[in-house]
């Protein structure tokens, strides 16, 4: 089953009153259960592609379909609910809510879905166990290490059992060993839950975990490797 | 969840939150104190107005008496004042019903003379009607005094009279003729209100009736146990007693007759509105500033919350909730500080001396008596204003594009 389709996606940014083309006809398909990785030099448009797939940025032209939904046609309200239910996000800087504990950060997407308190507790505890954070569940982000923070972020992204997880440089702020452990965790989730992952990275270690590597250069996919 | 998250966000930048709370606290405290001061002052003016001869309710035979009656009391005499008095005194709220004649007269001393307003009530009842009258020289009436007079201080100065002097009073009587009589000055009184101090003199009622050649009075004054009963008793009179009478009756409450009180009240109310407006502007400015900073600081966090599915309304709600808490806590602490300040001034300092306001003859010791209702109003005001002031920053926060907010470091 095809989960993500980008077809002839174009995107310009206006910078200092001049149009700067960033995506110049991106074509891409992701099948459900896949793990894929976007690589390319800084500024090549990796984050932009991920944002468009994630419904937090918009193409100027082309077709964007995720889980059979035409994202270009959705309103903000619908799109927010879609992101909450169908997608998970992992960021380079973890982006946890600083005033919430590890437990509460992971719980948050379920609160948005109005899942009952008991059910939430059960699922969050299980997730804390799965990402190995049960011991620090009541700690706030500033009391956690980088690796632990990214585990919280993974827990938060996966707690809703999303169809697709979008991770933009998930190891960008972690040392090599911690990064590897994080990738192991996501690989495990991919295998167990069949969750689809798409990464953007500069790090060959990350791409070593994915079967597909898409090379982005100057706003277009120029090469694809499949293992 | 929103309220809870907002509460925690309040503690993120403690210094800024403290500054904002201090601003609101100070503003609300000032409002509570000022309100307490105004209430006490108006209450003082109200009581001195009522107990300087106005009474709580005035009963006459016609509406016109209240405008022209002093020049022609004879056209408005009750046919049977006793009947009305008896009926009113049955009400437990009514302490006293006092027959009164007022008329204008010329009062002449050895060298100077002047126009005065004569108020005459029975000597034995004068105390409850004129309890704010302060005899500063000489003595008050006894029931046996006839053809004796008490002068307000300003009148005594104007015509150069002292206790023991004999003055000549001239006025028109019932049959239209001019009558004159000699009066011995037995006392000089201070009334507190300058407008009365310069014009008022007092007689006992039998002397006045004898002098004017009348056997009835044009006015009955009801003094009540408490000022709060005024409206209630007024309704009772017009609805219950008036239909039973075969004489004409008009009832006026003190507030309708006290022009000066109403002016002062209006003045203070406007002042209070202006002060409240200014304080609310300060609160709005502070909140907008604080919240704008909070929104800016949390740009990436807003982007994150939106990315993981929070609706725009959720983000707005978060900042409005934060505004709510700031307003609420600031309001509560402002009220507590205001009440503490008021009781400190009242008990430890024993009030604050206020020099004579315009129209008043004397300064006074002001106490601060904030009312329960206005205290809650101030809390509501602080909370509402700070929620409203958070709208603009919250909208700014939610207007940002998510992808751009996430790039913000
Ligand atoms: N909001 C924006 N306004 C203007 N230009 C932008 C904006 N967002 C991105 N760009 C530009 O678009 C281009 C692609 O950016 P993008 O972040 O997608 O690249 P990237 O491949 O993720 O880079 P990196 O590896 O540094 O993260 C860059 O030249 C960037 O400066
Ligand atoms: Mg990027």
Could you explain how this protein is built, in words?
The complex is a heterodimer of chains A (227) and B (409). Chain A is of the alpha/beta class and 227 residues long. Chain A has one domain: Rossmann fold, CATH 3.40.50. Helix content of chain A is 35%, strand content 30%. In chain A, the strands form two sheets. A six-stranded mixed sheet of chain A has the order 6-7-8-3-9-10, sandwiched between helices. In chain A, strands 2-1-4-5 form a four-stranded antiparallel sheet, covered by helices on one side. In chain A, strand 1 (2-15) and strand 2 (18-31) form a beta hairpin. Chain B folds into two domains: 2-49 and 261-407, no CATH class; 62-248, no CATH class. Helices cover 54% and strands 19% of the residues of chain B. In chain B, the strands form two sheets. Chain B has a six-stranded mixed β-barrel. In chain B, strands 11-12 form a two-stranded antiparallel sheet. In chain B, strand 2 and strand 3 (113-121) form a beta hairpin. In chain B, helix 13 packs antiparallel against helix 14. At the A-B interface, helix 1, helix 2 and helix 3 of A face helix 1, helix 12 and helix 15 of B. The complex binds adenosine-5'-triphosphate and magnesium ion.
